Amino acid sequence: MKIGAKLGLGFGVLMVLIGVVALVGLLEVNDITEGYQTKVVPAEELSAESNEVGVELLQVRRREKDFLARKDMKYVDKINQHLDNVVGLTRDMQGLTSDPDVVSKLTRIESLAGDYRSGFKVLAAAVEERGLNEKLGVQGEFRSAVHQVEQAFKDNGFNLSLIHI
Predict the structure, then answer these.
(1) pLDDT digits (tens, 9 = 90+) for 43-67
(2) Helix (H, G, I), strand (E, B), or coil: what is residue 37?
(3) DSSP 133
(4) pTM of this prediction?
């Protein structure tokens, strides 16, 4: 065999080997891309949504403090909206994973959000019954009764400024 034929055969074999390496490389890139799409992307979405759950829970705590400080019923609705967001996010997250441990934790978070909602409803009702300000609820009734008693004393000639308790 002549040297040109040997060189041609050598380059031909080299080209076939390069082709095989390129084909294997493409197949591996496809496997990596598929693995990224099926494992990494859902994990990233799960992580992002778990961060959103944390933000929503912080908002619940903030609105609770606002309610207790300001005694305004609008915060009850805001708390319920944030809790609805938590429940929606946990349900979305359950669709992103098949890990039974993660699913059970998400179910527990959803259950605890429901428990919190129920407990806060009781608290809000108690605060509202007591009175959101000094003129409403039991507090308002008490103040009204005190004013009536004071007026009765004045109407009957008692000087309340002389009474020291």
Answers:
(1) 889 889 999 999 999 999 999 999 9
(2) helix
(3) S
(4) 0.69
